[in-house]
Amino acid sequence: MGCGLRKLEDPEDSSPGKIYSTLKRPQVETKTETVYEYVLLDFSLEGSRPTVQYVSSLSELPQALQPYYTQGYVLTALHPIILSVGRTRSLPFSLLYRAILARPRPSKQMASMCHSVPMLKVEEWPLPGDSLTGDTVRALIDRVNSSARGGVRFVGSVLQQVSGVTNGRVHSPKRSCRSPPRTPPRTPPGDRELEENTYSPDLRLLVFFHAWAPGCAPLDSLACQYHQGALSMRVSRKGQVVSALEADWLELTAAYYRKGWSLVDSFVYWDTPRGEPVPRSLEGLFVYEERSTSPPANDTIVVEQWTVIEGSNVKTDYGPLLHTLAEFGWLLTCVLPTPIIRHDSDGNLATKQVVFLQRPVRGQTAGHSRNQSSSNVNRNPIPAEELSPTAGGIGGFPVFGGGYPSALSHLEEGGFEQEEGKAEVTCM
Questions:
Q1: Which residues are 209's β-sheet partners?
Q2: Looking at residues 101-122, what average pLDDT do you find?
Q3: pLDDT (tens digit per residue) in 156-171
Q4: Which of 196, 264, 296, 379 could pair with 423 as two cysteines, CB 3.0-4.6 Å apart?
Q5: Rounded to the nearest 5°, which phi and psi values hold at 385?
């Protein structure tokens, strides 16, 4: 008998997703005092469709989301649905973005809290160079902390290209992604596809904050601090394109969740400079929020989920599972899009995303719960069943979600059972 590193997932794996949690399944499905309601909205920078709202720039989101804010929803995450990183040209739907909003389910006891709903604000920050680096991200976190000292809370960020002209062609100022590709070198005559699709982006980071009217901010929203945490993944590639990834999500985040911090954003350096060896791992940074109060430790769920686009609409995504977990008090705080893209058996475009949810540890003091949570880790993934979104909306906006039967009931029985040992090691 011997032990070896577990292989990366089969690139042709057709399973809809994997779920990791610090808890066993019965604990995941335990009711809490808080129940969340979610709204999932898709926005496009290149035109509207029946289930997609058009905006000319993501800086218009505060106005577009205002009808939801008046009903107590707030933005918890924003991410591009498709990343074209490492490819010679952008893929369809590269200008499609998902906004996730959440609110605690209204109750009589919460009626007096309506005054604390924040305002969503956006700032546009220039970036040096043509891609994110560790130094630029750390500088950005310093700037976020400077803003937070003024009484605002950081919600998240997204990259957007504002201009670019290459080879005599004017490129859309709306093209953007989480970490855009570096400008490919000029190629010999004849390689028209690569030549015509190179571009030199002028990048801006759109940074979203929540702000309150004077005297209306919740006490735990004052003087928040933001910290960086390591993010590393093992990857396999087809050429320059990432085709599979694997990370010890719970190991990477556990120490921060035990402190009661919240994961609010992520940055991954997807780009590989031309001419350099293709790495087998990728690095990045998580951004965590520390509140001025001393909240209890957090348990967490991490979902690796395939999103499938049929025609011009999202057919399958993490929405149904999110609505089910909302009934048990799980709050989505971050979504990490990836450049893993393929076609399903029906020819639909599919991409993988990593979803992070958290919930305070239940029934223990903060200090005790932090110690308990560290050893209560289920490191083995659970296959998730495919689930389809439904449509509805507020004020004419399209929204994915609605009333779902328990998505967890479709998961493999016993899937949340713990096992000893680390996730990356398999005994043979």
A1: 121, 154
A2: 78
A3: 999 876 544 333 333 3
A4: 379
A5: -80, 150
